[in-house]
Amino acid sequence: MRRVRRRAVFKNGDCNVVQKHLQRRRVRFLQDMYTTMVDWQWRWTLLAFALSFILSWLFFALIWWLIIYTHGDLEEPHLPENQEESGWAPCVSAIDGFTSCFLFSIETQHTIGYGVRTTSPECPEAIFMMCFQSIYGVMSSAFMAGIVFAKMTRAKQRAQTLLFSKHAVICQRDGTLSLMFRVGDMRKSHIIGAGVRAQLIRTKSTKEGEVMTQYFTELEIGTDDSGSDLFFIWPMVIEHKIDENSPLYNLNATDMLQDKFEIVVILEGTVESTGQSTQARSSYINTEILWGHRFDPVVLYNKDLQAYEIDYARFNETTQVDTPLCSARELNEIYKIQEGFRTPASPSTQSRCSCSSGYQTPGRQSRLRWQLSVPL
Fold it and tell me: What stretches pass through the bilayer (predicted)?
């Protein structure tokens, strides 16, 4: 059977969280009815949209029928075809049953006004009901239209066109091990003020013996020398340098496979076309990190078009490169020895950095070998 990996955030950005034993859940959600309806699925929102009108039409039609019935307009001598002979003044003209009351309710609520059924000064309660239903119709239409508009312009919809690479990679950059992933935007309308964050979720034990199974650690990330703020006009590779301040500093290639952790990445910014904030999320577990790989370039200059061309077919493509299989801490110790510092490396460090064992990346069975000779 395929082993199920625990993760807090799915690849599509949905949070893998289920709530239970909430006290007064329905009451609290009804108090914030607008947000509750915006969070509904589309089928429930459209059902509520239709029922809000149909039920209100039926309710006011019943009220109109009661007003007309108590006034006596539905008696045989007072029906529309006999009103001219009897000289009867009805509350609403051209009403002969519940069906005509229902049609008059629709005309009043939406100010259609076909010109056949009209109220008369004969019944003050009919005039009051006409005013009340007209006000209710405007408010209900504005409320439901606002909900539909809010659902269509949610930040979650814009996040569908923001891409994260399928895998993260670890390789050397300027002699330092770095964790990298790629982000991209499919639309021509850019994300203004784009910023990216990354957090590591893993188990931590305190000095007092407390075990925190979901401990968050902020990772320092950036792209090139611009930090975490992006000029997001094409796909960019986000880098986290594995240095002394990194929680991954002591992990080698083998530990990366055996350890259990998750890296949650978050991209935030303002949509250029709408001015609304948006957020896209994804995550990488330990088996989704390729050790000894580098992302292939996807941005090339097209001389024929005289513009930079982005090949999204290669967005997730990586190239295998020679990379030490030891941890960043062990690698730094070896570099210090090479530079002439008398910092003795432990026997375990020397044996690990000889890297005689290979790191198997997911979906690949190739073996990496890296050997480092140390002048003593």
Answer: 44-67, 126-150
Neighbours of 42 (CB within 10 A): 10
Do 42 and 154 meet the contact criterion of CB atoms below 8 Å apart? Answer: no
Contact between 321 and 291 (Cβ < 8 Å): no
Residue 165: other Cβ atoms inside 10 A: 23
What residue type is 277 in one-letter code? S
- H-type helices in 77-123, by residue range? 83-86, 98-109
Residue 177: helix, strand or coil by DSSP? Answer: strand
Pull the structure tokens for residue 5. 């990996």
CA dihedral 115, 121, 124, 128 (to 10 degrees): 30
- Indicate the burial class of 161 (C-beta count within 10 angstroms; 0-12, 13-18, 19 or more): middle
Distance between CA atoms of residues 242 and 249, nearest Å: 6
Q: Structural domains in the chain?
A: 32-153 (1.10.287.70), 158-332 (2.60.40.1400)
Helix (H) or strand (E) holding 331: helix 328-338
Q: pLDDT by residue (tens digit) across 122-177? A: 889 999 999 999 999 999 999 888 888 888 877 677 778 899 999 999 999 988 99
Dist CA 127 CA 110 (whole Å) = 16
DSSP letter for 78, please: G
Question: 297: pLDDT confidence band, cut at 50, 70 and 90?
Answer: very high
Helix (H), strand (E) at residue 333: helix 328-338
Helix (H, G, I), strand (E, B) or coil at 174: coil
How far apart are the C-alpha atoms of 198 and 204, rounded to whole Å? 18
Distance (Å, rounded) from C-alpha 89 to C-alpha 73?
A: 8
Alpha-carbon gap, residue 144 to 137, rounded angstroms: 11
